[in-house]
């Protein structure tokens, strides 16, 4: 009986993880036509984050104690994992293919190891170093360095900015895990991950409101259509895809799936996000990658997975399973460290 229910739980977790990867992977495919139709990338990011924040308000109210207990964590999640990652990512896909931008962003696990080794001066395993080398070598194939760096340099730097924002949040999570417990109760429950996501979206929306200045946006564009590989798609439909599927559904299914699977399995499935994004961009946007780029992308994902799997396990992260779930505190942190980005 227990074995059967465990198998069903793992099967459900795998299905939800695949759904989350598919939902996350489709964000750039839906956003790029809106950007090409005339919307500023920052305005698209603001629409996505603000729309998701409004939907998640009931969740934020339920976990309102987080504002008092973990203000630094919420601010860091909103600034780095929401506003920073998405703003840089959406800006990068306005200049380079969606698949390339996401593959560059998957350097984050390797960059985290660089922070651990050279800034914190903590040892890393040989396997982790191999993962870093593979990720960097794969990136060289993705951007085709032998072509004399003819690739859009600004687009590449923007994608690297998204990767660095991921690193910032991973580092914040590590510090939060070391000092985030109640001084009077070492067994204090870590904050609920969905609550952190809800407040991260709210903080991110507030930051992006100041940066993007949506009052200057051409709202009439949302009533028109956007071109997707020769076909016209209603702009409101693409926006709904970004908000409901690529944000709300993607986050919720991702959090639930990582509770049903181990962090290692969740990490493997998370790597499929880049594959799905590249495939969707190929089919829906006509963004064909060359054979060396495809091979390089596979090497990047392999290196990223090896790097995150071989990294020293951090203390129990601040974004962990909520009370009553029976999941150890590191599980959701495992999802974050696997390279899953809030696209």
Helix amount:
over 70%
Which radius of gyration do the C-alpha atoms yield?
19 Å
Structural class: mainly alpha
Number of separate helices: 15
Our estimate of the beta-strand percent is under 5%
Q: Say how many strands there are.
A: 2
Q: What does the largest sheet look like?
A: 2 strands, antiparallel
Query: Overall pLDDT, averaged?
Result: 77
Order of helices and strands: HHHHHHHHHHHEEHHHH
What is the approximate shape?
A: globular
Contiguous uncertain segments of 5+ residues: 176-187, 313-339
Strand order of the largest sheet: 1-2
End-to-end Cα distance, whole Å, is: 39 Å
Descriptive overview:
By secondary structure, the protein is mainly alpha-helical. It is built from 15 helices and 2 strands. It has helices spanning about 1-25, 25-35, 40-55, 55-60, 65-70, 70-95, 100-105, 110-120, 125-140, 155-180, 195-210, 235-260, 265-285, 290-310, 330-335; strands spanning about 225-230, 230-235. α8 (about 110-120) packs across α10. The longest helix is centred in the middle third of the chain and has 27 residues, at about 155-180. Mean pLDDT is about 75; it is low at about 175-185 and about 315-340.
């Amino acid at each position: 009986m227990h074995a059967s229910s465990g198998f069903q739980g793992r099967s459900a977790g795998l299905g939800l993880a695949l759904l989350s990867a598919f939902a996350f992977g489709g964000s750039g495919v839906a956003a790029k036509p809106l950007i090409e139709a005339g919307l500023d990338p920052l305005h698209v990011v603001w629409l996505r984050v603000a729309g998701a924040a409004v939907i998640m308000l009931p969740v934020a109210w339920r976990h309102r104690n987080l504002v008092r207990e973990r203000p630094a964590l919420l601010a860091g999640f909103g600034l780095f994992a929401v506003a920073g990652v998405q703003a840089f990512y959406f800006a990068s896909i306005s200049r380079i293919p969606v698949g390339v931008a996401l593959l560059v962003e998957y350097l984050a696990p390797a960059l985290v190891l660089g922070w651990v080794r050279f800034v914190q001066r903590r040892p890393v395993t040989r396997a982790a170093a191999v993962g870093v080398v593979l990720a960097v070598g794969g990136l060289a194939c993705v951007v085709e360095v032998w072509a004399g760096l003819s690739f859009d340099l600004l687009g590449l730097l923007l994608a690297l900015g998204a990767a660095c924002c991921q690193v910032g949040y991973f580092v914040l999570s590590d510090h939060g895990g070391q000092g985030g417990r109640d001084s009077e109760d070492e067994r204090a429950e870590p904050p609920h991950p969905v609550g952190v996501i809800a407040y991260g979206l709210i903080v991110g929306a507030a930051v992006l409101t100041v940066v993007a200045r949506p009052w200057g946006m051409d709202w009439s564009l949302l009533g028109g259509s956007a071109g997707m590989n020769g076909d016209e798609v209603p702009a409101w439909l693409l926006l709904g895809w970004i908000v409901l599927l690529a944000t709300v559904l993607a986050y919720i299914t991702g959090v639930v799936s990582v509770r049903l699977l181990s962090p290692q399995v969740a990490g493997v499935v998370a790597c499929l996000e880049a594959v799905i994004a590249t495939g969707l961009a190929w089919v829906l946007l006509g963004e064909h990658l060359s054979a060396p780029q495809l091979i390089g992308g596979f090497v990047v994902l392999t290196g990223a997975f090896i790097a995150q799997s071989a990294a020293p396990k951090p203390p129990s992260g601040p974004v962990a399973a909520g009370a009553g779930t029976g999941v150890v505190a590191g599980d959701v942190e495992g999802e974050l460290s696997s390279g899953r980005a809030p696209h």
